[in-house]
Amino acid sequence: MGFPYVRESPRFYDEGTFSIYQFRQTLQQTSQGYDCASMVEAEPAIRQLLKLDFEPKVSTTIRRNFRQTINQTIKTHLLPMAQQQADKILQYYPQARAFLEQTLEQEAIAKIALNQKLQLEVEQNIKQYNQAVNGLNDCWRSLKLFQHQLPVINREMAIKIEPKTEIYNNTNGNHSNSNW
Question: What are phi and psi for residue 17, nearest 5 degrees?
């Protein structure tokens, strides 16, 4: 199917029609002088004549053929190109999957390292806390104030303490111990 062009209307310039009369009037107006001034003066009439000639033809072409032409263009040109692009993209799927696996593995390694670092910091904080508590408890014991002794944190208690999720889920490595 060829592309449907705007078709001429065979009766537009027939003898006795208003359009042929207007066409002759416009030609007469443009041939009055030997310079372009008469053409410039006839411009509105020329525009009007072209409008009367082309608008109905274009409108008819659009109403009759536009949707069919667009659909045909999409089917014959755009869909095959889209299919080619999809095929190209699918060719890269194994590489993309391998890259994603590698990226996820690297992210997992980084998170594990961060969690180990945070765990070490927590263990160091627990150790410092326990040293301070033991010092205070020694002081309380020397004053014979046994009821004021503080408990130390052992490994089982530390495991029961639920970590603050924003510390462990922070992926850019910034964390704060002030939340503990």
Answer: -90, 155
